[in-house]
Amino acid sequence: MLKKSIGKIKMNNAEKFLETYKELAEESFKKWGYYYPPKTWEEFDARNYSFYEKYLKEKENGIKKTKAFIRLANTMNDFSFYNLYQNFDFENLNNILFQTSRQKLLNRGMLASGTDHCNVLFNTFSSFSCNDFSVIDHFFPKELPQSKGKFYTEVSVNLLKVLYYEQTEFKNEAIAKADKFLSKKITSWEKHTVQYFRALVKNDAQDASNSLQELCTAFQKMEHSVNKLNNKLAKYFAYEINGIYRFAMIVNQELFERINQPKHHCFSNEFELWQKENNFPKGKIFYKYPKEMEFMNTIFKAELPTVELYNPYPDRKKIELYKNVEKFAEDLTENADKKQ
Question: How confident is the model at residue 254, as a pLDDT?
């Protein structure tokens, strides 16, 4: 297995991440008397076992148990990167991105949002960064209708589906909704995400390249958390942008090769080099939970549910379609039970 040093990210952002992470843990200790996020495997295990004893040990099988296990897995997200940056290699990064992005997607899939299925778009970018493009079929299935285009996520998913499923019959409609959205007062992240997918549909490598560069700048201006240190932590490595960039590869290889990678400290050009040299491997599970928490491993191995929409207000004249979060949770639980 080819392994390379982290290069620029190692010199710049890895040390900064570790410093901020420790600050965050110390802040928690001063306020609450315990370190969170955890700094050692002992602290990580202790927190998981405490959660298990309190919320999971006596919980009966079913949707509530599934949701609780997904919340348990959240502890791994930042902690995995904390460990990675102390002993870095790209294979581990690819696998960490797979497991953490899967946890975030499953959690988001079960949360009511008052919107349709497109609200998970940002989380799918993380999956793209480890070449887990299968999430598209489950979270943005072909059979669901084009979204209205009220939010940047909806506009972008419309364009994404035109590309991924080669839905040329929706191309003009998707571009028209994108153009209308881009004429509004929107954030830089919203603008350049939509513009990137529009550029892919238009086969415009220059516009796509410019959009990626602007997304790196926009990522630094976003509020990723209400906590100052958490917000700072999130900005060191925008793997979501690596994922956005690599999406082009699976829909138009020739265009992908003409798109310039952004030059910014939050984008890993070294990761892209490793991906190419290793034939773009799909990530896999890197951490297995102990026997008592085996159901979490089962959830990760289970087939992803496919998102469905429903109309919760059938008596209203205006039809509103929302993500059916309860059906998603039911299907995930059923799929996990089949793996046991």
Answer: 98
Could you tell me the two tokens for 163?
């590309």
CB 302 within 8 A of CB 339: yes
Euclidean distance between CA atoms 1 and 3, whole angstroms: 6
Tell me the pTM: 0.93
Does residue 4 surpass a pLDDT of 70?
Answer: no
Distance of CA 226 to the CA centre of its chain: 19
Does residue 269 contact residue 214 with C-beta atoms inside 8 Å? Answer: no
> Can you tell me the distance from the alpha carbon of 61 to that of 294, in angstroms, rounded to the nearest whole number?
13
Comparing CA positions, the residue from 272, 312, 222, 293 lying closest to residue 55 is: 293
Cα-based torsion angle of the residue sequence 255, 261, 267, 273 in order, rounded to the nearest 10 degrees: 90
**Residue 190 identity:** E
Handedness of CA 186, 187, 188, 194 (dihedral sign): negative
**Looking at the chain, how many residues does it have?**
340
On whether the CB atoms of residues 275 and 309 are closer than 8 A, the answer is no
Predicted local distance difference test score (pLDDT) of residue 312: 83
Give SS3 for 323.
Answer: strand
CB 158 within 8 A of CB 170: yes
Please name which of 140, 193, 210, 145 lies closest in space to residue 173, comparing C-alpha atoms.
145
146: Cβ contacts below 8 Å, ≥ 6 apart: 158, 161, 170, 173, 174, 177
Q: Tell the residue number behind the tokens 């003009």, with chain if given.
A: 172
- CA-CA distance, 168 to 255, in Å (whole number)? 17
Structure confidence at residue 326 as a pLDDT band (50, 70, 90): very high
> Which residue is it, tokens 């900064």?
16
What 8-state DSSP symbol labels residue 53?
I
